[in-house]
Amino acid sequence: MTLQINLFTSYEKRFKFTSLALNQLTKIKPENKELISLHIYCNQNLKDLWLNEVSQEKYSDLDIVLHLMENDEYILKVPMAQNTDAEFSCKWDDDVLIGSPTWDYMIENMNILSTSKTSVLAPQLTNGLPTIDTFIQDLLSPEDQKITHKIFLEEGIKTVLDIWGADYRGVQTFIESMSEWNADKYWNFMETYNPKATRPHLPNNYQWAKGVHPGRFSYTYNKFIADKILNNKEKLYGKNDFYIQPKDTAYFCNNIFITKTSFWKESFAILRDGYDEGQLTIYAKQLNMTPAYIRNSFGIHMAYGCTHRQSEIEEYYTTQLCSN
């Protein structure tokens, strides 16, 4: 076993969606299945639900470990997942779905993490940071790209100016100064922007909290891109013209990625946070390492907790995918 895939589950209401996502993993090449072990972390109250799921015949050729937890808080799953001898680790949230060809490509190219200054290997997601912008570029027509860019410019981040206890008014001012959306200019600005605390005793590391982007919060955008990917399932599930693009930006946030286990562990010595995006960003920059993204991959991340009308978006994806 070379790669340990860690599926972090949360809400029971996501189960149908997650089951669909797991079905794609069962379809990867036999030789790639031999390289992986799938570890599923879930609340012990859902024991029967998950045991029934993984006992199906389609999982019979996968090595699966089920971790039942009394307290399944996200940050408690991380040290459990990192306690492995596997050279590579995959963090996978239960609101993410990628196609089996994307899985195969990731597994077959994960050695890039050992042979280059690459911090993580990740597919593009509907609202990943910074993959949201290349996802749009690779999937949408020029006309539809203009629609998403108009959403970013018009909505900006007006409703979250002090999210996470930090001041992002300067970011909104910069967005308002743009006559057209330019992702590179946006992330170059974010590289220099250091949000100040709006709450007392905010940790100094929050100057690194640069994971703001209009598409992370916008219901309008996330509903629009949901319709586009659901109407292009051949792109979601297909073997596209994949290639790897290293790209350094001010922030990394992707709800599925592969990295060296040692890098993942060491990043958590940087700071104590409820998630791992800040640690991964900071540690990669300290080591002059760069994330690498799989272009022409089209994964669904339904919504963030800070996305407006999150539950509505998640219900929409689940209903649309399960009805077909």
Give an overview in words.
The protein is α/β, with parallel strands linked by helices and 324 residues long. The chain has a domain at 3-124 and 251-297: Spore Coat Polysaccharide Biosynthesis Protein SpsA, Chain A (Alpha-Beta Complex), CATH 3.90.550.10. 43% of the residues lie in helices and 18% in strands. It has 16 helices and 9 strands. Strands 1, 2, 3, 4, 5, 6, 7, 8 and 9 form a 9-stranded mixed sheet that branches. Helix 12 (219-230) packs parallel to helix 16. The longest helix has 14 residues, at 142-155. It is globular and about 55 Å long.
Chain-wise SSE layout:
Elements: E1 3-8, H1 15-25, H2 30-33, E2 36-43, H3 47-54, E3 64-69, H4 74-82, E4 88-93, E5 96-97, H5 100-108, H6 112-115, E6 118-125, H7 131-139, H8 142-155, H9 169-177, H10 183-192, H11 214-217, H12 219-230, H13 233-237, E7 243-246, E8 256-260, H14 261-267, H15 277-286, E9 290-301, H16 310-322
Parallel strand pairs: 1-2, 1-4, 2-3, 6-9
Antiparallel strand pairs: 4-8, 5-9, 6-8, 7-9
Helix pairs in contact: 12-16, 14-15
Keywords:
324 residues; alpha/beta; Spore Coat Polysaccharide Biosynthesis Protein SpsA, Chain A; 9-stranded mixed beta sheet; 16 helices; 9 strands; 18% strand
Head-to-tail CA distance between termini: 34 Å
Number of helical segments?
Answer: 16
CATH architecture of the domain at 3-124 and 251-297: Alpha-Beta Complex
Number of strands: 9
The helix content, as a percent range, equals: 40-55%
CATH fold-level topology of the domain at 3-124 and 251-297 = Spore Coat Polysaccharide Biosynthesis Protein SpsA, Chain A
Rounded to the nearest angstrom, the radius of gyration is 19 Å
Principal-axes shape call: globular
What is the mean pLDDT? Answer: 93
The low-confidence runs, each spanning 5 or more residues with pLDDT under 50, are none
Oligomer: single chain
Q: What is the fourth-level CATH superfamily of the domain at 3-124 and 251-297?
A: Spore Coat Polysaccharide Biosynthesis Protein SpsA, Chain A
CATH class label of the domain at 3-124 and 251-297? Alpha Beta
Structural class: alpha/beta
Strand content: 15-25%
Strand/helix succession: EHHEHEHEEHHEHHHHHHHEEHHEH
Largest sheet: 9 strands, mixed
